[in-house]
Write a structure and sequence with these properties.
The protein has 2 helices and no strands. By secondary structure, the chain is mostly helical. The longest helix is centred in the middle third of the chain and has 43 residues. The N and C termini lie far apart (71 Å).
Length: 77
Amino acid sequence: MNISGPNRRARLGTSLLTAQNNEARERQEKIDSFRRAIDDIEARRSRLVKNPEHLGDGDIDLMHDIRSARGGAPTPL
């Protein structure tokens, strides 16, 4: 790229606009990725809350939290 030619301002403007568009696209891709991850976590959490029998006996604290969240009577720890 010739930076000393007569079209240098147009080339610089195009380069800056391209860089800005790339940054905006990458930022939006990250946001979309985070949203998908959050949606996935919420779906897994929802499945666990609906089906706590998959947890087993080892997760007493988690079972207590789930029962509390569902409005059930909390179990003594």
